[in-house]
Amino acid sequence: MKYVFGPVLSRRLGISLGLDLIPFKTCTLDCIYCECGRTTKKTTERKPYIKASHILDEVKQVLVKAEKLDYITLGGSGEPTLNSEIGTLINEIKKISDIPVAVLTNGTLLHLKEVRKDLQHADLVIPSLDAVSPEVFKKIDRPAKGLDPGTIIDGLIQFRKEYKGKIWLEVFFVKGVNDSDEAVDGLIKTIRTIRPDKVQLNTIDRPPAEPTAMSEDIEGLRLIYERFRDNDIHAEIIKPFEIKDAPALADQKDVKRSVISLIKRRPETIRHISLFLGLQVPFVNKILRELEQEKKIKRIILKGETFYKA
Ligand code: SF4
Predict the structure, then answer these.
(1) Within the chain, where are the H helices?
(2) Over 80: is that where the pLDDT of 114 sits?
(3) Which of 205, 251, 199 is nearest to 225 (CA)?
């Protein structure tokens, strides 16, 4: 499988089958916190980077044997709305499956009518908005030329008016970058006009693109959450997993492939790999040691924790 990964256990979406719609790190932004590393192709050009029919062929193969999925999630390691065939892909998936379709997007192209139209038949759209001032936006999201927060916010407001599905807006906080009182007030004021179904407050918990980017501490996030709540915004803090019994999701015939497929996109700890794929920790440990010896993966240390990346 080149474009389909998982199923994996997602913090927000349960058991999710991931679809990669664009080549690795092709994005409109180059966020300092990005878990996939630095953007290698920063662009706003929409085109059929990967044909919808190629992705759909893989989806059909996986759906034949997939047991239970909560979502089919369009995202991957870049911005999925850059793929101009995303609308076709969503419509074709809806024809062959009842599983809800979610789209993870940075929202930077929602000012384009054709992008909003492409997403109309998704069940859930999770856009992000990290800053409303151009200075902070540039600092945290390092946008492609021509992108500015005003246009992105207008796109989000317009999308909310036209779209009938659910919108969960994600705000990613980086300590000392977009967490000042002024920055948070600006976000709250703007998000009240966007009116998403809920807001998800997130911060760094895997090695970021820039090692200098620091995660917001839990107390800081809690204070931000309270300010959102006091302004009548339905918000929640994205917490780490606390699931005891993860379902078995790895391809038992080729566990190494399942592990590589998972950590190719972003680094994970042994505990998370075990959780996402429903494998015992000692077994994951053994697989990771073998993959290291085969030089297929590497270790990254963040705050004393070891992450693995293919
Ligand atoms: S976090 Fe998302 S929007 Fe930001 S650079 Fe990474 S893939 Fe692009």
Answers:
(1) 52-65, 86-96, 113-118, 134-141, 149-162, 181-194, 218-230, 255-263, 270-277, 281-293
(2) yes
(3) 199
What does the radius of gyration of the chain's CA atoms come to, in whole angstroms?
19
Q: Which residue has the tokens 């911005």?
A: 79
Residue type at position 118: D
| Fold classification of 4-237 (topology level) | TIM Barrel (3.20.20)
Q: Give pLDDT, residue 252.
A: 60
Site residues for ligand 1, CB cut-off 6 Å: 27, 29-31, 34, 36, 39, 78-79, 106
Q: What ranges do the domains of the chain cover? A: 4-237, 255-309
Eight-state DSSP code of residue 290: H
CA-nearest residue for atom 7, ligand 1, is 78
Stretch 229-250: mean pLDDT: 74
Atom of ligand 1 nearest to the CA of 141: 4
- pLDDT tier at 134, thresholds 50, 70, 90: very high
Residue 179 pLDDT exceeds 70: yes
Read off the pLDDT of each residue in 243-257 and give the average, rounded to a whole number.
Answer: 62
Q: What is the DSSP letter of 26?
A: E
Instruction: For residue 300, give the 3-state DSSP assignment.
Output: strand
pTM of the model: 0.86
**Mean pLDDT computed over every residue of the chain:** 91
Residue nearest to atom 1 of ligand 1 (CA): 34
The structural architecture, per CATH, of the domain 255-309 is: Orthogonal Bundle (1.10)
